[in-house]
Amino acid sequence: MPNGDRAAVFDGQGSYFEFADSPDLSVAKTGVLTVEAWLRPDTLIFPKQEGSGYVHWLGKGELGDGTHSAQMEWAARMYGATNTDIPWRENRISGYAFNLEGGRGIGSYFQDDLAAGDWIHYVLVINTTPDDAQDPGYTRIYRDGSNAPTVSSTPWDDMDSLLEYWPDPTTPHLISPGDGDSPLRIGTRDFRSFFQGAVGKMAIYDYELTPGQIQSHYEAMWS
């Protein structure tokens, strides 16, 4: 890591860490979850991507199948340089909250210039507490201690309401994260994609870190 501490390195082919399910890892415990980590993508074209060309490098959730129901909760995602979304999501790093049954979710992202080997301080907040700005709750994302875009970035979606307006923009759907039984994984979420790079100092909080705390954590890495 930038300060010389060790981090876990993932090969992008199938390596991951797994932590057993616990209420402490779910938004539902207090209605608030903050996810913090340092990540270093070692490539911008991941060998095992999913969807339009992205990987889940951290998350808690599994899709359902014929035997088991979906257990979707939250995920941290990175889009590769070859993604097929329009508008293009090259280098976009995002975080999402889902309804337990899957199919619907909401999230925030940053999308900046990025090179393989760069260390990034990532913080995702999921807060289901209604407030005047984002009723009935929100997701919020920070990069390198800040939730404001840099001059060189694509405009961020740094804060988003927990109401999803899709596919009908006139009909809101509430995203209400539940307490599922899937494990927490680093390097993948559910084996459908794998991250190639390093992740360190991952932490989960059952409250929202303040902007000042987040900035302090970022600066501590360089002091």
Residue fraction in strands: 35-45%
CATH architecture: Sandwich
> What fold name stands as the CATH topology?
Jelly Rolls
- State the end-to-end distance: 13 Å
CATH hierarchy class name: Mainly Beta
Strand order of the largest sheet: 2-14-4-5-6-7-10
The residue fraction in helices comes out at under 10%
**Overall mean pLDDT score?**
92
Protein name: LamG domain-containing protein
InterPro entries: ConA-like_dom_sf (IPR013320)
Overview of this structure, please?
- By secondary structure, the chain is mostly beta strands.
- It has one domain: Jelly Rolls (Sandwich), CATH 2.60.120.200.
- It has one helix and 15 strands; from the N terminus they run E-E-E-E-E-E-E-E-E-E-E-E-E-E-E-H.
- It starts with 7 loop residues before the first strand and ends with a helix.
Name the features.
single chain; 223 residues; mainly beta; Jelly Rolls; 7-stranded antiparallel beta sheet; 6-stranded antiparallel beta sheet; 15 strands; 37% strand; ConA-like_dom_sf; LamG domain-containing protein
Question: What is this entry, summarized?
Answer:
This is LamG domain-containing protein. This protein has one helix at residues 211-222; strands at 8-11, 17-19, 32-41, 54-60, 74-79, 92-98, 105-111, 120-127, 138-143, 154-157, 159-161, 163-164, 173-174, 184-186, 196-205.
